[in-house]
């Protein structure tokens, strides 16, 4: 018993120290997800939404968001303990195209979305859904 105590006590005391690296980690970071409607107007009037965005995670359904040209829809998320946080969206360019994309995937995005105001930036365009980690360079990650 004495032996067990002499092992268990130091272990128990060092437990908070083992957790220290987590204290400044991604688990406390609040990520901002931006989705902007950069679709061309074509023949639709400027204020009429031409994009329907529907985003959700396992626990949270943001609902249907009708978006007019130039609108930016934003929400926040933290990363869960198991780093499985995932927000997926369906984007429907009314009368044209529709597709799904992952707006936030913890493992994929935890680093790249730290670059610019802890934001993941998405831009819905006529040829696809673009990602940017710096709000300057855009990549067509989900062509449609
Ligand atoms: C990205 O840049 C544009 C200007 O090019 C600006 O209007 C917009 O607010 C920026 N987005 C964020 C999330 O900072």
Write the layout of secondary structure elements.
Blueprint: H1 2-23, E1 31-37, E2 51-56, E3 61-67, E4 72-77, E5 86-93, E6 97-105, H2 106-109, E7 119-125, E8 128-132, E9 139-143
Parallel strand pairs: 1-7
Antiparallel strand pairs: 1-4, 2-3, 2-5, 5-6, 7-8, 8-9
Bound molecules: 2-acetamido-2-deoxy-beta-D-glucopyranose
Helix content: 10-25%
For the biggest β-sheet, the strand order reads 4-1-7-8-9
Number of DSSP-assigned strands: 9
Compute the average pLDDT. 89
Described by its quaternary structure, the protein is: single chain
Percent of residues in beta strands? 35-45%
Determine the number of helices (DSSP H or I, runs of at least 4 residues).
2
Secondary-structure element pattern, one letter each: HEEEEEEHEEE
Largest sheet, strands/sense/barrel: 5 strands, mixed
Name the CATH class: Mainly Beta
Distance between the termini: 66 Å
Q: Which term fits the overall shape?
A: elongated
What is the fold named in CATH at topology level? Immunoglobulin-like
GO cellular component, one term: extracellular region
Main location: secreted
Subcellular location: Secreted
Signal peptide: 1-25
């Amino acid at each position: 018993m004495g032996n067990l105590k002499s092992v268990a006590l130091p272990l128990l005391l060092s437990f908070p120290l083992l957790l220290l690296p987590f204290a400044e980690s991604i688990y406390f970071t609040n990520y901002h997800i931006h989705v902007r409607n950069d679709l061309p107007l074509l023949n639709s009037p400027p204020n009429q939404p031409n994009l329907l965005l529907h985003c959700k995670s396992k626990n949270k359904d943001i609902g249907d968001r009708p978006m007019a040209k130039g609108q930016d829809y934003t929400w926040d998320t933290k990363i869960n303990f198991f780093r499985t946080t995932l927000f997926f969206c369906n984007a429907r360019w009314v009368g044209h195209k529709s597709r799904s994309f992952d707006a936030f995937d913890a493992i994929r995005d935890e680093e790249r979305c730290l670059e610019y105001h802890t934001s993941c930036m998405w831009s819905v365009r006529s040829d696809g859904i673009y990602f940017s980690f710096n709000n300057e360079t855009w990549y067509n990650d989900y062509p449609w």
